[in-house]
Design brief:
heterodimer; A: 482 residues; alpha+beta; Arc Repressor Mutant, subunit A; three-stranded antiparallel β-sheet; 40% helix; B: 480 residues; alpha/beta; Amidase signature (AS) enzymes; globular; binds zinc ion
Chain lengths: 482, 480
């Protein structure tokens, strides 16, 4: 039995990603977030009468980058089109987009589910368009909506998938992977909270085994990655329940309400748009020649899958660790740099994943500017490896590093944290402990070997924890068993 | 000062640069005429007196220092611009109620170019609302009257600019063309009107009617002046993606020529609907040019009878989108602002737009709508391509094409206003070249027996304005 009462979900995603460019897509205004309302504007992005768009080459380049990164085809000639609708935050009364001739066609996203299962989903297209402004709906006591046009004209790409995903978990995995590629290529920050990345889902269900698609709905307004998964799950369950009770799904656009965890249909008036697309006469056809495409390809950064494979091969780490460490470029870069200073990939991977990420998670610090630099972590790893310090000491060193930003050497010196591996020194201590605890020695010799830990503890106490445990174990065994 | 009204732009600029004429005096005279004679024919919506006098004083100052020549070919020349061209500090109305109170915060590139050339912008001229019309009766500010006879229309949509030149208020004015809006009134008022090659003059700052055919277009009383005017305004502009990089020759220096042109006579342009007197006049022009050694050849532009339909589908489609921004939200008129959004939109647009504009928005919205797009917009775009090919083929055979500019001379105010389809036929000889992007010029030549001006049109291959200026000069010289 399937998870959805004999129904199979069919999911396609439309992802809008704001491009990280210096300026807006059709004017010279700065492409930035968080400035006072309507300060990043000019006649072009305000849609003033007579103003005309001029295409930003950097935006095109970012789009090409993403298309190449997902293995799509960059079309040598694409066409901008006007999408016409009235809304206060759309000052021209149309959005410049691409319609029947987008810049990118095809491509495929390979991703993993949380249990490690590998999946993939093909892309229909990637096209370039401009963002609209923002409507700031009435605050308490106000009876009007304000409009902020700073965002207006921010370059976007829309990444449209084929309806090939079959569960909310797949949609989540796909979306996270798209975000990862966007970040790796520096095409988009991937920040959903700031609206730099947005996702709409097209969802239908059909009886398992049926080839024909069911009637689909579109769910919008999700503002987190997990929110997308939850919204899709909600909508699948809603549709299945509807069909089970003998009803039918009607085509509609639904808005996800994160606080109430429900998706509800928009008023039909709001969604009954005929966008009257037609070619944008103010722009010439977008021609991208092969030289340009090759140039972008040559400057393509290492992509997540490539990086992960390299980590596994060069640093001898497990695939799961590689996946965690390549999650973001900043984390991967950090680990990569640690590995410039040490040879022990696995220990380094453990330290970065558990100790470093743990601290960052609590403090909220940014890894790329965090005071514990990669070479400092590598120092710790190397000192563990050379047995200069024990694993336990290493944690003390690290905690102090996070506190003070001092180097491992300084901390070890200040705290006197040198490990005692000298056998003569340790034997002397062991001898005195044995002679002071003859009773326990007898117990051990009569077969109560679990008392061995007592002797280790005594040595550690005597050496303030600085004794090398391996050496202590060996010497104690020799003494007690001999 | 010599008789202001008889001075050409060339004479004014030469006089100003030589210190023999004062730009300030010229500007004052132009403004004075605009306020009196201009008012009688309703040619202006706004007179830009304060800035004009400042500009003129600056030009005079340069002339005094002897630094104005030759970078200011229009030094001190009073120029009027159509009220759909953005010019800071003064309203840009497009002769529409919906733009009430709108003052553009930026100058059109064309205006910048003109000011750089030393021109003095003395006013913003009346027009058909949003440049939609062929009689200048569709203005919120009332119709413009034909200077030749105040009972008659001046043509449109650049009626105010054309009348200002014909009335000799200014030697040069700029209108805009979408399908004949400068050539047709030029013919009806008896002046020169050039529709440049699409992309010749930047559209940045020109309030869009139909982006794919809109062109800012000069008017003047001599071939030399119109060449000067075009030269000053033209050029590639980084702010207009559709403007074209072209190495323009110095037109005024190449005006006089011994070149003998091979000129095509498109049979479709002399068919039914053409007024007899207009037809005879064009034939006289042909005879005169033949006598001067130019050769003529009958050619065919087979798509001609589709041009009007294609023109109205495409330009209305673009207009329906271009005019969507006038919604009461950001600037201009807002009605029912205390009601809900949809009510505000519809009330504002209903009250703000005139009948002809509404007609085109409705038509344009219809031809772009789902289910109709293929049959109308898509098909019209295909035929447009065929029209372009018609011209391309024709210009393989001939240097220029000759035709009437308008099927009739000026008609009476009110005569066609309730019959849009007949009105639309005013553009029958001009719309094709607009759709194809080719340049065209209307040259005043001859009169009807009632003394009304007639225009002869020449069309040329892309960016061959030089030939248009040369043939205009030849015809002007041989006629006088
Ligand atoms: Zn801007």
């Amino acid at each position: 039995m399937s998870e959805y009462d004999g129904y199979e979900p069919v999911i396609g995603l439309e992802i809008h990603a704001q491009l990280q460019t210096e300026s807006k897509i059709f004017c010279g205004c700065k492409n930035a977030y968080g400035e006072p309302p309507n300060t990043l504007t000019c006649p072009v992005c305000l849609g003033l009468p007579g103003a005309l768009p001029v295409l930003n080459k950097q935006a095109v380049e970012k789009a090409i980058k993403m298309i190449l990164a997902v293995g799509g085809k960059v079309c040598n000639r694409s066409v901008f089109a006007r999408k016409n609708y009235f809304y206060p935050d759309l000052p021209k009364g149309y959005q410049i987009s691409q319609f029947d001739k987008p810049i990118g066609e095809g491509g495929e996203i390979f991703f993993s589910l949380e249990d490690g299962t590998k999946k993939s989903c093909r892309l229909t297209r990637i096209h370039i368009e401009e963002d609209a402004g923002k409507s700031l709906h009435p605050e308490k006591g106000e009876s009007y909506t304000r409009v902020d046009l700073n965002r207006c004209g921010t370059p976007l790409i829309e990444i449209v998938s084929e309806p090939e995903m079959r569960s909310p978990e797949e949609a989540y995995g796909y979306f996270v992977k798209v975000k990862q590629i966007l970040q790796y290529t520096k095409v988009c920050s991937g920040d959903m909270e700031k609206g730099h990345l947005r996702c709409d889902a097209n969802i239908s269900v059909r009886p398992v085994g049926q080839e024909e698609f069911g009637t689909r709905t579109e769910v919008k307004n999700m503002n987190s990655f997990k929110g997308v998964e939850r919204a899709i799950k909600f909508e699948i369950q809603r549709q299945v329940k509807l069909l089970k009770s003998g009803g039918s799904v009607t085509q509609a656009t639904l808005l996800w309400d994160e606080s109430r965890q429900v998706a509800e249909a928009m008023r039909s008036k709001e969604e009954s748009h005929d966008y009257r697309y037609f070619p944008e006469p103010d722009l010439v056809n977008l021609v991208v020649n092969d030289v340009w495409i090759e140039n972008v390809r040559e400057n393509m950064p290492e992509l997540p899958d490539e990086k992960s494979e390299r980590f596994i091969k060069d640093y001898q780490i497990r695939p799961y660790d590689a996946m965690v460490l390549t999650d973001t470029t900043s984390l991967a870069d950090y680990y990569d740099e640690v590995m410039q200073y040490t040879k022990d990939g696995r220990t380094a991977a453990n330290w970065v994943q558990s100790e470093l990420l743990g601290v960052l998670k609590d403090s909220g610090d940014d890894i790329s500017t965090f005071k514990v630099r990669p070479n400092m972590i590598a120092d710790i790893v190397n000192k563990i490896e050379s047995k200069e310090i024990s694993g336990k000491m290493a944690k003390t060193v690290f905690a102090e590093m996070v506190e003070s930003g001092k180097s491992a050497d300084v901390i070890i010196k200040e705290k006197g944290l040198v490990q005692i591996s000298d056998e003569k020194q340790l034997l002397a201590i062991i001898d005195s402990i044995i002679s002071a605890n003859t009773g326990n020695v007898d117990k051990y010799k009569s077969g109560k070997t679990n008392i061995f830990g007592f002797f280790v503890g005594q040595v550690m106490k005597e050496t303030k924890g600085q004794a090398n445990p391996e050496v202590v174990n060996r010497l104690l065994k020799q003494k007690l068993d001999g | 000062m010599p008789d202001y009204k008889e001075l050409t732009a060339k004479q004014m600029a030469d006089g100003v640069k030589a210190g023999k004429l004062s730009a300030v005096e010229l500007a004052k005279e132009a403004i004075n005429l605009a306020k009196t004679e201009g008012k009688a024919i309703n040619a202006f919506i706004t007179i830009c007196e304060e800035k004009a006098l400042k500009q003129a004083a600056a030009v005079d100052a340069l002339a005094k220092k002897g630094t104005s020549s030759p970078s200011q070919p229009l030094a001190g020349v009073p120029v009027a611009i159509k009220d759909n061209i953005s010019y800071t500090d003064y309203a840009t109305t497009c002769a529409s109620h919906i733009l009430d109170g709108y003052i553009p915060p930026y100058d059109a590139t064309c205006v910048k170019n003109l000011i750089d050339a030393g021109a003095i912008i003395i006013g913003k001229t009346n027009m058909d609302e949003f440049a939609m019309g062929s009689s200048n009766e569709n203005s919120f500010y009332g119709p413009v009257k034909n200077p030749v006879n105040h009972e008659l229309v001046p043509g449109g949509s650049s009626g105010g600019s054309t009348a200002a030149v014909a009335q000799k208020i200014v030697p040069i004015a700029f209108g805009s063309e979408t399908g004949g809006s400068v050539r047709q009134p030029a013919a009806l008022c008896g002046v020169f009107g050039l529709k440049p090659t699409y992309g010749g003059i930047s559209r940045y700052g020109l309030v869009a009617f139909a982006s794919s055919t809109d062109q800012i277009a000069p008017l003047a009383r001599t071939a030399e002046d119109i060449a000067l005017a075009y030269q000053a305004a033209a050029g590639r502009d980084e702010n207009d993606s559709t403007s074209v990089t072209f190495d323009h020759p110095v037109y005024s220096e190449k005006l006089a020529t011994d070149k003998k042109f091979k000129i095509g006579i498109p049979k479709e342009y002399f068919a039914e609907g053409l007024d007899d007197e207009v037809k005879q006049t064009v034939e006289e022009a042909i005879k005169l040019l033949e006598k001067n050694g130019h050769t003529f050849k009958e050619i065919s532009l087979p798509m001609t009878d589709r041009a009007i339909a294609v023109y109205y589908i495409i330009t209305s489609a673009e207009a329906s989108s271009n005019l969507a921004r006038f919604d009461g939200v950001k600037y201009g008129l807002r009605e029912a602002g205390d009601k809900d959004l949809t009510t505000m939109y519809s009330t504002t647009r209903d009250s703000g737009f005139g009948a002809e504009v509404k007609r085109r928005i409705m038509l344009g919205t219809y031809v772009l709508s789902a289910g109709y797009y293929e049959a109308y917009y898509r098909k019209a775009s295909k035929v447009r391509e065929l029209i372009r090919l018609d011209f391309e083929k024709a210009f393989n055979e001939v240097d220029l094409i000759i035709s009437p500019t308008s099927p009739t001379a000026a008609f009476k105010l009110g005569e066609k206003i309730d019959d849009p389809l007949t009105m639309y036929l005013s553009d029958i000889y001009t719309a094709s070249a607009s759709l194809a992007g080719n340049p065209g010029i209307s040259v005043p030549f001859g009169k009807t027996k009632d003394g009304l001006p007639i225009g002869v049109q020449f069309l040329a291959p892309w960016f061959n304005e030089l030939s248009l200026f040369q043939i205009s000069n030849i015809l002007q010289k041989s006629a006088s």
